Amino acid sequence: MLLLPLVLAAVLLPGSGQAADPVLKAKVGPGFSISIANGAGVKVTRVPVGTYSIDVSDLSAEHNFHLKGPGGIDMATDVAATGSVTWNLRLLDGTYTFLCDAHPGTMRGTLAVGAAPPPKPKLTGRVGPGKVISLKTAAGTTVKTLKAGTYRLTVRDATRGENFHLLGAGVNKKTGVRFKGSVIWTVTFRAGSYTLRSDASKKLRRNFKVI
């Protein structure tokens, strides 16, 4: 049984000089599996913006493959049918969702299109051992002023007698006083004053500004 909707790929004549669109391989089934891979069969989570020949293999009469996202794309195979179909689609910058309409809670994934966002700048926080608390840049410099933005903060809590508590505009994150270990937070700082302190020792605190 043929799947609908069916988009026919343009046939390139020998010597036309036109490059074929890159291929993506979409598959649903057998079983409760759904995925998108590149032409070599390697699963992908991000591809560049462009026009793609998407080969869809629907291997289960209990599931379907439904792709939707930027540019008004909303393409699906039939839940009750099996077979193969090719969609020639222009994928735009953004995130596309693919899922099985019969099992959307368990059979779904995303495909990011476009350049990956730049990595978040890193900060390191520490409390302990002893009466020590600090916040440093990736270069090891103690933070006194910081540019507003989103950061990846790794906190190392090396004592069961203190904790690392970060307070300020839109931020209130802390480890437990009895906790000992490491945590990673994504923190967005806005302009203003911030404090890092231990809730067990009120005098153990540092202040810095975000500009």
Describe this structure in words.
- The protein is mostly beta strands and 211 residues long.
- It has no helices and 18 strands.
- A 5-stranded mixed beta sheet has the order 3-9-8-5-6, with no helix packed on it. A 5-stranded mixed beta sheet has the order 12-18-17-14-15, with no helix packed on it.
β-strand number: 18
What coarse outline follows from CA principal-axis ratios? elongated
Oligomer: single chain
Q: What's the main sheet like?
A: 5 strands, mixed
- Helix share, percent: under 10%
How many helical stretches?
0
Gyration radius, rounded? 25 Å
- CATH class (first level) name of the largest domain: Mainly Beta
Entry keywords:
211 residues, mainly beta, Immunoglobulin-like, 2 domains, five-stranded mixed β-sheet, 0% helix, 48% strand
Short description:
By secondary structure, the protein is mainly beta. It has strands at 23-28, 34-38, 46-47, 50-58, 66-69, 73-76, 83-91, 94-99, 108-113, 122-127, 133-137, 145-146, 149-157, 165-168, 171-174, 181-189, 192-197, 205-210.
List the helices and strands and how they pair.
Blueprint: E1 23-28, E2 34-38, E3 46-47, E4 50-58, E5 66-69, E6 73-76, E7 83-91, E8 94-99, E9 108-113, E10 122-127, E11 133-137, E12 145-146, E13 149-157, E14 165-168, E15 171-174, E16 181-189, E17 192-197, E18 205-210
Parallel strand pairs: 1-4, 3-9, 10-13, 12-18
Antiparallel strand pairs: 1-2, 4-7, 5-6, 5-8, 8-9, 10-11, 13-16, 14-15, 14-17, 17-18
